[in-house]
From TrEMBL:
It comes from Actinomadura rugatobispora. This is Pyridoxamine 5'-phosphate oxidase family protein. It comes from the Bacteria. InterPro entries: Pyridox_Oxase-rel, Split_barrel_FMN-bd. Pfam families: Pyridox_ox_2 (PF12900). SUPFAM superfamilies: FMN-binding split barrel.
């Protein structure tokens, strides 16, 4: 189904806009996503392991990481503008989906960490900084054959 309500008669994949609930359902299993932010030198995108916590996304980073450095420069309680993207692509079938969340990223205080979902980073090394993105905008698209 396309956004206009019908399948493409040519048999080519159709792009469909996803609503808020569909987007959250697609990313709810957690996994790997990409965080985009300005690290002071320009736009930067890094992959992270994440978990979903209600409408928010939680992930971890190192104390030395660029994202933590950006978080450390804002006032206590303030948020850093970030975008978070997760996708699943099947290049053989020309199908897939992409979800984008935009909002404020904040370091999760120690007392809130036990209540947040578990996030296990893949790389070795310490990643003690928990970040929560509370989105003010959620959007997504799915490409499929109706």
């Amino acid at each position: 189904m396309s956004a206009s309500g019908g399948a493409d008669p040519s048999g080519r994949p159709v792009l469909e806009e996803l609503n808020h609930e569909q987007c959250l359902a697609l990313i709810s299993p957690g996994g790997v996503g990409r965080v985009a932010f300005d690290d002071g030198e320009g736009p930067t995108v890094i992959p992270v392991n994440y978990a979903v916590d209600g409408d928010a996304v939680v992930f971890r980073t190192s104390l030395e990481g660029r994202l933590h450095q950006s978080l450390a420069t804002v006032l206590t309680g303030a948020a850093v503008r970030i975008a978070f993207e997760v996708d699943s692509i099947d290049p053989v079938r020309h199908e897939g989906w992409s979800v984008l969340l935009r909002g404020g990223g904040q370091e999760l205080p120690d007392h809130e960490r036990p209540a947040s979902p578990a996030v296990e980073p893949w790389p070795g090394g310490e990643r003690p900084v928990y970040v929560r993105l509370v989105p003010h905008h959620v959007s997504g698209r799915r490409l499929g054959h109706g």
